[in-house]
Every structure is written in C-alpha cells, then in structure tokens.
Amino acid sequence: MQEPKDAEARRAVEPVICYPNETLPVPDLELYAKARAGAEKIGEVRVAPREAGAFRVGAGQFFRISSVEGPQVGDLNLWNAHDLSERFYSGKSRALHGTHLTEGERMWSSFPYLRPMATITADTLGWYGIDGFGGSVHDVIGTRCDPYTGNLLAGSQYHHCCHSNLTRALADELGVSLEEAEPHVHDVLNVFMCTGFTRDTGQYFMKASPVRPGDYLEFFAEIDLLGALSACPGGDCSAEHSSDTAACHPLLVEVFAPEAGALEGWESPTVNGYDRSHGR
Ligand SMILES: [Zn+2]
After folding, report:
1. Which residues lie near ion ligand 1 (Cβ < 5 Å)?
2. What is the pTM of this model?
3. Which Pfam families match (predicted)?
4. Ligand 1: distance of its center to the CA of 41 in Å?
5. How far is the CA of 86 from the centre of ligand 1 (A)?
6. Is residue 246 predicted with pLDDT exceeding 90?
7. 215 alpha carbon to ligand 1 midpoint, in Å?
8. Buried (b) or exposed (e) across 202-229, using 16+ Cβ within 10 A?
9. CA of 58 to the centre of ligand 1 (A)
10. Cross-strand partners of 76
C-alpha cells in the first residue's frame, strides 16, 4: 500500500475530544460524603470465586465492592430495579468519561433513559493513574468474559465465565429461567481490572491487577438498583481467563444506608429529556 504524500501531515492533525464533559451534571460529592459519614451498613453479599452474586441498593444508598482475600477482578452489571430494560451502558460511559472510571465519574444507563445510575464516591486505586503501558484500572472497554468467545477461539465449553455467572445470578434473583435472564446481561464495569490497548497493534490487553485485600470501589446509587457482580475466573487477570487455572478469590459487596434527612436537597435523576420524536 502506497502512502499519500501528505500522510505525515494528516497523521499530525490534533485530536478533538468527542464529548467535552464540562456540561455534564456535576454530582454533589460533598453532600454524598456527608451522607456516607453517618451511614449504617444494612447488608452484604459475599461473592464466591468463579460465581456471581446479586444485590439490591435503594436510591440514595451506597454500595462498596471490596477485595477481601487476594487480588481479584469483578465484573459488574447494574439494572434499574423496577425495569430491567434500563441498564448500564458501558460504551456511552466510556465516551463520556474515558476508558476507565474513578471517583466522581458515573455509570450511565442505556437509551432512552441515559441518566446516572451510580456515582463512584471512593476508589482506593485512584492513585494508579495510567501506567507506562497505557494500562489503568476499572475499565469500560472490555466486555465480560463469556463462553461464546471461548468456543469461537478454542472450541471450549466453559461454564464459569462472568457472562454465565451473571446469567445464573440474575436468574436466581428473579426466579426466571437462564434463557429469560441471559439477554439482560450486558457489558460490564470491570472492577479492579487493569487493562489498556497496545500501542503497536491496538489490541485489548490485561495485566495483573494492582488490587490488594482492603482495596475498594464505592458507589452512590442514584436510582433503585439491582446489581450483579461476578468474581472473574481470571482472578487478578495476570495470565488467562475463561478457565479454572487462575487463582481466584471472593469479593465482598456491602450496602450502606444514610441517616434520614442526610440527603436534603438531593433528588434521584429523571430520565433523559430528549423528546424521542426522531424527526417525525
Ligand atoms: Zn470475567
């Protein structure tokens, strides 16, 4: 393939941020912090390795995902607790905030709702930043490990990928069949996972997560949420996933409720204001 004469000049064009986010509604992190300070723990779910667990968090409550026994990555799905068609939109959250999420950033919901479902209020791995390989933590670039890709690439029949773990957990939580639950499983927030794209080939890479027991990611629930978290069979994702070979550890989800009146002035966000006439 012949390069055009002005190839270098074309490559040298400065990038433009697709979605300047200065006009995004800003969460009142100070109010959230005050509410969190007086909050009381009201429940927990311990997610076993290579399994997933479901949990519910009311609007105005907090949930924390913690590493408890060893480095472990978690795949998180969120739904509106009253309407599963509103669910976390990984791609749009990426477009609005970047490839990895941290404190002050939000998990946005699917069309036509497009509103914040949860706001990250604490991230003990916030110090990590972006490493020399272009890797960072808590990505919204990966999908979730799944048995279909494993079958495509290796002809395998592995049943404890995050996709299957989330499907079983949702089916059990709702009392529905796997067939009914599976279409609701969606691309995740990769909690504690350290990932990026290689500069030379642009391929998705993972590396050993910097997470250690005691680290956590905490969220404020902007709407009533149903969540499911899978303790990925990749463990810390230092080598491989989609098999039983990696060392895996549990994850802990805890839910906290603020004192009555602690969120004075806060309102659960309304759904997106676009009129949905689509030009007709
Ligand atoms: Zn996984």
Report:
1. 75, 145, 162, 232
2. 0.94
3. DUF1989
4. 28
5. 22
6. no
7. 19
8. eeeebbebbbeeebbbbbbbbbbbbbbb
9. 26
10. 189, 229
